[in-house]
Amino acid sequence: MAQQSIDRLWSEVQRTEQQIGEQQKKIEKAIEDEKPQKLIDSYTEEKARLVAYEKDLRQAWERMALQTQLITPVGDPSKVVADLVGPLPSGWPLGGLVGLITEKVPRKLPVAPWLYAALIDEDASVWQDKIVPLDGKLAACVTDRVVNAQSTDGNEQLTISGGSERLIGHFMQRLAEAAGDGYQLSYQTHRDATVSFSRSAASAVEAGTRPDCSIIVALRHAVTGQDEKQGDFNSAYDDIVKKAAVCNVRHYAPVDGTLAYAAAGNYLQFFCLNLNGEVTYETQQFDISNPVHRAEVLLCVAAMFRALLVMGKCWHANPIKAEDAENVPEGLEYQDLDAYLKANFTELVTFKAVHDLGNDKNGSPSATLVVTKDKVHVNMPLFGPDLLHAPPENEQSFKAVGRGLLQGLSMLHSKGLRHRDPRAPNVVWQHPVRRDAVILVDLDLACRSSAELPEDFRLADWDEGTLDGTRHYTAASDVYQAGKLLQALAADKSWAGSAKQFCDDLLSKQLTAVDALRHSYLA
């Protein structure tokens, strides 16, 4: 009887999820057809009711599974990581990267006990070799990825725009956090979320091109990825093969290749490439709208994590200097950069000046510019993820964001410069894991305080409050934009109330960046 009740709840959860998807399509169609706002609001209210109902169902389902004691959660997360990743060879294997990735390692994903019970009951032949019951953060992460086919905000079906980050980036991070001795991986992930000429991310490819994702281990790029929200998968595949070529082969020995993934729409595929950028192995093409395929993707990430551990061990035994790593400098064609700066009403002299101010301790990155006849090279350190992909999780880290962001702005303002684009993708954590300091990057749009803007010029994140009455972007505009960012980061969080006055004061345009750093909230 208990199992039948669990089965009924599971069916109701699935039915409600389908209704949520149908309701979202109704909303989109009504907006597209310009239906009355009252009708759109009614559709939105119904979707909200369904979402709340689905949440209640899921909680009831989990309680019932645990109460009937169908499964007992057991296991140490660090041991689960070791079991999931598999035993590590003592050195670089004779079979090379392909052999390392394809080696048959019996691995199972940890999932919440209620999900284990439901999936085994649904189809034991598919799931019994893929999952194991466990509690804890790692199991919660896997459970969410297997069950949830919606994007992080719950408003649209999961696509590659957020899918690869949730299925690859977040799961990699959870594995690293739960790993015990012998399985601890030091790496940096950099994502090129917007068109930019001065990301803090290391360029993992030949000069002039850049993948959407680069995972760096011991100053060598180990994984590159190309994400396209919609469009042609073959195009993403061709792009990543072009972008993943290694520039300095001798730095990689004894490792004989790198890893990559290509993604478009709902589809994702992993590859091994040799050091000439030729594909030597590829997985099947996964459809991330399918829960079984999402589980397969996570198993591939576990295999990739294993490969990175072995690659890192070999590379750490043969260290290279940051200035020698081909994946640190980013070469920019001078003509392209000059045209880009002019289109955004700034100039090369300002570009050089703003990159010369940071020291990694004043809220701005240390950067070295090397200008040759036809190229400008920007060398920056490797930092942690940006706020778009790793927002602050508690009030202490939120205050660290406020301090670092305002410190970076005050430094620019003291030199008569304006950043103009302090958004979440342009603020990065100084350390890959710690969340105690941030750096303001993407300095290419910085301009002098005297810069004149035409009436039709505006950046995507500006609103009616950004410019002053004479359509100038001022120091107060930077502080205002910072206030918008901080307000968004605090929204719906436990510290939203205590941070409200601070955010309101920044939005008032009455405080300079220096004044804001002295605000009682940051004391």
Automatic annotation (TrEMBL):
<protein>
    <recommendedName>
        <fullName>Protein kinase domain-containing protein</fullName>
    </recommendedName>
</protein>
<feature type="domain" description="Protein kinase">
    <location>
        <begin position="286"/>
        <end position="522"/>
    </location>
</feature>
<dbReference type="InterPro" id="IPR000719">
    <property type="entry name" value="Prot_kinase_dom"/>
</dbReference>
<dbReference type="InterPro" id="IPR011009">
    <property type="entry name" value="Kinase-like_dom_sf"/>
</dbReference>
<dbReference type="GO" id="GO:0004672">
    <property type="term" value="F:protein kinase activity"/>
</dbReference>
<dbReference type="GO" id="GO:0005524">
    <property type="term" value="F:ATP binding"/>
</dbReference>
